[in-house]
Amino acid sequence: MQFWNFLAARLLQALAVVLNDSIGVQYVNFLGDLIQGDLGYSWVGGGVSTIDSIGDRTWNTFKLGMSALAFAIATAVPLGVAAALRRGGVVDWLARAVAVFGQAAPGFWLGLMMIFFFAVDLGWFPTGGAVGWRALILPAISLGMLEMAAIMRLTRSGMIEAMDTEFIRTARAKGLPERTVIVRYGLRHAMLPVATILGIGIGRLIAGSVIVEVVFAWPGVGRLIIDSIVRSDYPMVQAAIIVLAASISLANVLVDVSYRFIDPRIRAGSL
Amino acid sequence: MARDATKALAPLVFERRRRRNWRRYAGLSIPALIAAVFVVCGAFAGPLSPDDPNFISLGERLQPPAFDGGAWDHPLGTDDLGRDILSRILHGAQISLIVVLIVIPGAAVIGTLIGLVAGWSGGLVGNLLMRLTDIQLALPSILFAVLLGSIFGPSLRNVIIILLLWTWSAYSRLVRAEAISLRERDFVTASRAVGASGVWIMRKHLLPNLLNTVVIIMTLEIAIVILAEAALSFLGVGVPPGTASWGRMLTEARSFMVQAWWMIWLPGIALMVVSLTGNLMGDWLRDALDPRLRNAR
């Protein structure tokens, strides 16, 4: 009985906040609640607090996004460097093919094809859900493909440019081992544009996660938004979009700060 | 002696230059051919289709393509409702073509105007327009699109409006950057000195100089727009159910992945080939017209 009273009170509270006041007053109330970490109550599912439902799912989306990014960087950087060092070779040709196809293939179709081959045919991975590390592999690859293509292209062109510069010649003249020349001098120079694109890339990853989460039934924020939109659960949509937009802004700030560590010229200057 | 040498070398030099020209266009030939096929398929989807794309015939459901043991009356097989896949792919090309033909020029005009005004006028108006672009770029546009799609309901007209709102900022940002650097050039200063108005300078000096950039973005956006339409339809907020669109076909194919490989392969391949073509043409055009843009995206 107490539960039902509580539920009714919460629902009335939610409706009163939304419907009684003028739009301006509602907006000010909303901002006040936002500062206190209160993003409102869901209209469906018994009026639960939206921030609670989002909290669980943010971790899942974060896990998916970070795995996708890790996959993209871990494959794109070595491939890009190898392609740049042997221009016109087999690796270069392969890398360019991967870049072109990675950019053209729609993420959701790629996901469906991978489910078709690796989950249904071979049975190596589950077709969806978020149970165990195996469930993470396919969604992370299909989400990271586009970023991988972009990072690979930039690494390749950056490396080609870097290996032509005076400081590489100096480093070689000093008698440094070729490995050090490539990693400490060339790659570091090539990573600068990559860091820039990571800011945009994280935004794109978050946007892409919406579709990938739907394809793989991944319980993240993106799927929550799609489900909530279908159910017309606007407080939930609003709260989830605020969380996503805030994470994109945060990612951009982190990328800006990371320039300090990559580019000594900025560290020396006034940041 | 020297003249003789020049004469003897002249055909060689000419020959080399001509070969280089031919090579410059060789990269474009295959994408251009595929693009032409896509346009013809889209424009003449009705006459080319062997069947009505929405004709349901449950007796013929899930028939494989002709090259995989099916009958020739459905060359690419049928879907779960017995609809002819070839006809549906052709009509899907039509949807993509309509979307591209309206959204690309529309977004280019809106985005270029906003970028031009923002770059030229600076100040309050320019800042306001740029913050608008920033907001547009910061929010994942697919969420915005899904929200609009769910409010307005699925229809082709709404998809086009949503994609216009989605894509204009790609133009305005680059156009603004170019306009700001052009604004400081001597010919603009000269024009101002003789009393030309802002609108006149924008039209006569800035716009012609920006055209290359805009055309390159337009070409590169073709793939983005086609994939976006497919994604919206895939999520169920694009074209209405029953319409033959590539994204819709993929959604419907999800439940029949195991029984009918062709339902999911064929629309996906069509989608990928067309977006690949758009990207290749855009890259080629960018390299040919403006190598500086190579790292812009």
Write up this protein.
The complex is a heterodimer of chains A (271) and B (297). With 271 residues, chain A is an all-alpha fold. Chain A is built from 11 helices and no strands. The mean pLDDT of chain B is 80. Chain B is built from 10 helices and no strands. Chain B is an all-alpha fold and 297 residues long. Classes of the chains: A mainly alpha (271), B mainly alpha (297). At the A-B interface, helix 4, helix 5, helix 8, helix 9 and helix 10 of A face helix 5, helix 8 and helix 10 of B.
Which characteristics define this entry?
A: 271 residues; 11 helices; 80% helix; 0% strand; B: 297 residues; mainly alpha; 10 helices; 75% helix
Distance between the amino and carboxyl termini of chain B: 53 Å
Oligomer: heterodimer
What helical percentage do the residues of chain A reach?
over 70%
| Uncertain spans of chain A | none
Radius of gyration of chain A: 24 Å
Helical element count of chain A?
11
Shape, per Cα inertia axes of chain A: elongated
The major pleated sheet of chain B works out as:
none
Termini distance of chain A?
A: 60 Å
Instruction: State which percent range the strand residues of chain A make up.
Output: under 5%
**How many E strands of chain B?**
0
Secondary-structure element series of chain B: HHHHHHHHHH
Instruction: Determine the mean pLDDT of chain A.
Output: 79
**Rg for CA atoms of chain B:** 24 Å
**Greatest chain-chain interface?**
A-B, 35 and 35 residues
Average pLDDT of chain B: 80
Total number of strands of chain A: 0
The helicity of chain B comes to over 70%
Q: Largest sheet of chain A, described in full?
A: none
